[in-house]
UniProtKB/TrEMBL annotation:
It comes from the Bacteria. The lineage of its organism: Bacteria, Bacillati, Bacillota, Clostridia, Eubacteriales. This is Nickel pincer cofactor biosynthesis protein LarB. InterPro entries: P2CMN_synthase_LarB (IPR039476), PurE_dom (IPR000031). It comes from Ruthenibacterium intestinale. Residues 119-251 form the PurE domain.
Length: 252
């Protein structure tokens, strides 16, 4: 049931046209749309403050377009599609305006030109090779209404590059630290700032990096307080969590 329908139902209860029991029965209608291959959660925005995000990997372009079409029909804006291929992006673009980033594979369907930019999130990367994950995090946070600053290639192999931006880090309400190799960046940043740090290990690195496992374990074992860790290459998860923290009441 869409928001306007809920309001109409509540007005009917207030006027006496519908009993509370009848209204309760209507509200129990399944809060999702069954598309056959997907069950779109139509209540996600109301429950969590942001609409369902489409994970594009392993979905066909037709499936992605079907989900997007239903969300557009319901007035959706800033619809996020992660791991969106170039082929699928071309098909989605026939439905609505699409802001697609080839580097990260993140697509924003029907972007809102009046989207707010609240608070301040900094996305810092150990190296240029981490940028695909960084951009997924940064663009996710921006699509959710946050102001984002990018600090790329400021890894610990050249610590002066990071220290030259301490003022930028200090102004952030959340820092996302993205690094592969040994993943030391998160600990260093955690020791410099008073805000929460979200560490993102990436699969960047040589053989003993084990596809990001070494960076993940380093970040999980960080001695800096206030550092939390998301999964390997999970830029979306970091951007989403950073948005939640940045927009907490009293902060944003």
């Amino acid at each position: 049931m869409e928001q306007r329908d809920v309001r109409a139902l509540l007005a009917a209860v207030a006027s006496g046209e519908v009993t509370p029991e009848q209204a309760e029965a209507q509200l129990r209608v399944q809060p999702f749309v069954d598309l056959g291959y997907a069950k779109l959660d139509t209540q996600r925005q109301r429950r969590q403050g942001s609409a369902e995000v489409i994970y594009g990997k392993s979905k066909t372009p037709q499936q992605i377009c079907g989900i997007v079409s239903e969300m557009l029909r319901r007035g959706g804006t800033d619809i996020l599609v992660t791991h969106l291929s170039a082929q699928a992006a071309e098909q989605v673009r026939t439905l609505a305006p699409l802001d697609w980033d080839e580097l990260s594979g993140l697509g924003i369907v029907n972007p809102d030109p009046n989207r707010p930019a609240r608070g301040h999130i900094v996305v810092a990367s150990g190296g240029t090779s981490d940028m695909p994950v960084c951009e997924e995090a940064a663009r996710t946070a921006e699509a959710l209404g946050n102001r984002v600053t990018r600090l790329y290639d400021v890894g610990v192999a050249g610590l002066h590059r990071l220290l030259a931006n301490v003022d930028v880090l200090a102004s952030a309400r959340v820092v996302i630290a993205v690094a592969g190799m040994e993943g030391a960046l998160a600990s260093v940043v955690g020791g410099l700032v008073s805000c929460p740090v979200i560490a993102v290990p990436t699969s960047v690195g040589y053989g003993a990096n084990f596809g990001g496992l070494s960076a993940l374990l380093s970040m999980l074992n960080s001695c800096a307080s206030g550092v939390s860790v998301v999964n390997i290459d999970n830029g979306f998860g970091a951007g989403f969590l950073a948005s939640r923290i940045n927009q907490m009441e009293g902060l944003a």
